Amino acid sequence: MGAIIKACSVSTDETGTSYLSSAASAVKNCLEQLSPVKKGVGLLINTGVYPDRHIHEPAIASLIQGVLQKSFRAILKGTFSFDLHSGGGGVVMALSIINGFIESGKIDYGVVVAGDSVPFDGTAGALMIGRGQSDEGFKIFSQDTYTHYSSDFRSYSNYSGNAVELFINQDHEYLNHCLQCVKKSVRRFLLDSALSDGEIDLIIPSQSPEGFASALADLYDKERVVVSKGEHKCYSAEVIVAIADAQSGEIFRNSRKVLFINVGPGIIVDLALYLNPF
Amino acid sequence: MKHGSSIESLGVYIPNRVLSTEDLEGRLKLSRPLRLELLTGIKERRECESGEDSLTLGEAAALDCLSSSKFDSNDIEMIIYSAITRYVGGLKHLYEPAVSILLKERLGCENAICFDLTNACAGMLSAFHVASDFIERGMVENCLVVSGEYITSLAHNAIEHIKTPDSPQIASLTLGDAGGAAILSRCMPEEGIASSKFVTLADYSELCMAYLSPTQTGGIMETRMKEIHEASIIHAPEVMEEALSEAGLSLDQIDFLIPHQTSKQAIRSGKKYFTKYFGKMASNVVINLSEFGNTASTSHALALHKLLGEGRVKRGDRIMLLSFASGLVIGAMIFVINDLADKYGSNY
Fold first, then answer.
1. Partner of A276 at 20 to 30 A CA spacing, among A58, A85, B65, B208?
2. Is A145 an interface residue toward B (CB < 8 Å)?
3. Which pTM value belongs to this model?
4. What is the pLDDT of residues A55-83, one digit of tens each?
5. Dihedral pair phi/psi, residue A125, rounded to 5°
6. Which one of A68, A84, A150 has the shortest CB-CB distance to B117?
7. Are the Cβ atoms of B101 and A85 closer than 8 angstroms?
8. At B224, is the secondary structure helix, strand, or coil?
9. Are B153 and B146 contacting, i.e. CB atoms less than 8 angstroms apart?
């Protein structure tokens, strides 16, 4: 049994600054797929990195749930919400947690929501997964960390004397290191999964750092790698935006074995094999 | 095969510097005394010294935890950093990379996967809940959960904003810094964590909000204390009932109920409400506020570590960890003390 994608939604904030409002909108679009409710959402995990107003608590996921609570009372009764941080790459790890809770029989549905406020444009992506058949859905999750590159990318906020400022330091080799790490992780992942490169029908990767997805498309077969058009200045939501892009055409529907690749500072590489239901 | 999961080891780190309630209250400009110590039961709390931050607190607690564990750092298969605060290098709030990856590097846990989980004061227990699922499904054998709460900046920053006793920043004065860590590991299905229930009651999600201060270094927190307390105790019995039912226990079979440590008055009022609701009560309700204050996500680890250190908990005792956090998150986790009781002497 694997959990399958039940709904995917991308939403932008009109003001271009608030992740919270676009996140609530993206999750709302997913929850509407569950109405009239039979079973509720057990987990709501936010993997956004840069929240509105530098909020520390409560979890941003609770605030997103709070916006929707009145409209989806039955679906959100019993929902447990929290935030997961894994740099820009938390979506696949969050999917792994939800998939596990579904496998354990603890929940029926879970939602991952991601996106970022300033310096990004507030674009949010939400993905709802639920129980599937034995020969479909998420099958294998894997994470590799390359801590010798942990200083390649650092971002932090600090009060600078008259305002809170965000500082981002990115090593000029960060993109190359991400590519090297992903290549290594994918090779190992395929070996451990007894899969050959040619068996993967579609690759849905992180789009950051800038140029990463295009470079990955050069490495593998261009046709198989989803490179988003880039109209959204989003970050942690990129993988979900790429899924939505792929779903909007034939490519996702026609692909059986889909490899999700999340890469983020650390360097952390999270991978997942998804068997698309036909 | 489904496995069980249990708390294999616990560790804490308490900074040396003491910040007394008297000192803190003395800096307030109120027309009459707040009597904070009398209301909260908090005599003092600890605060970070120069060079200490969320990462170093967490690291020190993790090292303490590993020193009592059968696992070496290389054996650790998963690390979850679960604190609210992510201050690294003073009061710089680190967004990326994840704090867990810095811990992994510092601790030499080469084989661990890692991520950060944030859920206000319920962070550490939420991480227990998630880690248990990975362990029970056989995905990992163990998980090191770490929190480093460098949270006293909220108390210091609150001072200049508090003009009246009903200020929304009063709760910030209860906070203290600490590190907490626990290793959860695989055990027989019938041992260890008997049940774990968590829910977010998001109608109350805005009753307590903390964020980076736009005018000072560090954070600020605004809490509608009365409302969040009332919502917590009114809704907690349902979660407790579910956890007790799954564990096949009644409340009077719990030897130690460890609630989130906010204030003596709040814990006593909760105890009174639960006693009336259930018609019975746990044998002991733990209050561990006097020396440490409210240490956010580490409060359960500190309280349990102290109970173990004092030798008050013995093998076979049933513990309920009861979580209340902004969100509003309510969680209840029940487990039976096993080898843990033999590992800790009279440390306190």
1. A85
2. yes
3. 0.97
4. 999 999 999 999 999 999 999 999 999 99
5. -125, 140
6. A84
7. no
8. coil
9. no
B221 to A57: CB separation less than 8 angstroms, yes or no:
yes
Return the residue of A nearest to B87 by Cα. Answer: A156
Q: Which residues of B touch A59 (CB under 8 A)?
A: 118-120, 200, 327, 329
CB of A74 within 8 Å of a chain B CB? The answer is no
**Can you tell me the mean pLDDT for A244-254?**
90
Q: In chain A, where are the structural domains located? A: 3-134, 140-275
The model's pLDDT over A163-199, given as tens digits with 9 standing for 90+, comes to 899 999 999 999 999 999 999 999 999 999 999 989 9
Question: In terms of C-beta density within 10 A (0-12 exposed, 13-18 middle, 19 or more buried), how is residue B186 classed?
Answer: buried
Topology of domain B4-187, per CATH?
Answer: Peroxisomal Thiolase; Chain A, domain 1 (3.40.47)
**In this complex, do A62 and B202 lie within 8 Å of one another by their Cβ atoms?**
yes
Closest partner CB to A143 (pick from B113, B199, B219): B113
* Listed residue (B40, B48, B49, B110) closest to B75, CA to CA: B110
Residues 79-98, chain A, touching B (beta carbon < 8 A): 79-88, 90, 93, 97
Residue A202 burial by CB count (10 A; 0-12/13-18/19+): exposed, middle or buried? buried
- For residue A135 the two structure tokens come to 């020969």
The fold adopted by the segment(s) B193-343 is Peroxisomal Thiolase; Chain A, domain 1 (3.40.47)
Least CB-CB distance to A100: which of B88, B139, B213? B139
pLDDT digits (tens, 9 = 90+) for B167-182: 999 999 999 999 999 9
B157: its two tokens: 């920053």
CATH number of A3-134: 3.40.47.10
Residues in chain A: 278
Distance CA B333, CA B330 (A): 10
Instruction: Specify the DSSP class assigned to residue A222.
Output: G
Q: Judge contact between B83 and B52, C-beta under 8 A.
A: no
The per-residue pLDDT for A231 is 62
Dump pLDDT digits (tens) for B34-69: 899 998 999 999 999 999 999 999 999 999 999 999
**For B295-327, what is each residue's pLDDT tens digit?**
999 999 999 999 999 999 999 999 999 999 999
CATH code, A140-275: 3.40.47.10
pLDDT confidence of B344, banded at 50, 70, 90?
confident
State pLDDT tens for residues B77-100: 999 999 999 999 999 999 999 999
ipTM of this complex > 0.90?
A: yes
Question: With the C-alpha atoms ordered A247, A248, A253, A258, is the resulting torsion angle positive or negative?
Answer: negative
The domain ranges of chain B are 4-187, 193-343
Chain B residues with beta carbon closer than 8 angstroms to that of A49? 95-96
Residue B1 pLDDT more than 70?
no
Across the beta sheet with B193-200, what order do the strands follow? B193-200, B329-336, B318-325, B256-259, B284-285
pLDDT the model gives residue A232: 62
What's the whole-number average pLDDT of chain B?
95
Q: Which helix H or strand E contains A99, and what residues bound it? A: helix A90-103
8 Å CB contact of B202 and A65: yes
A276/B contact by beta carbon, under 8 A: no
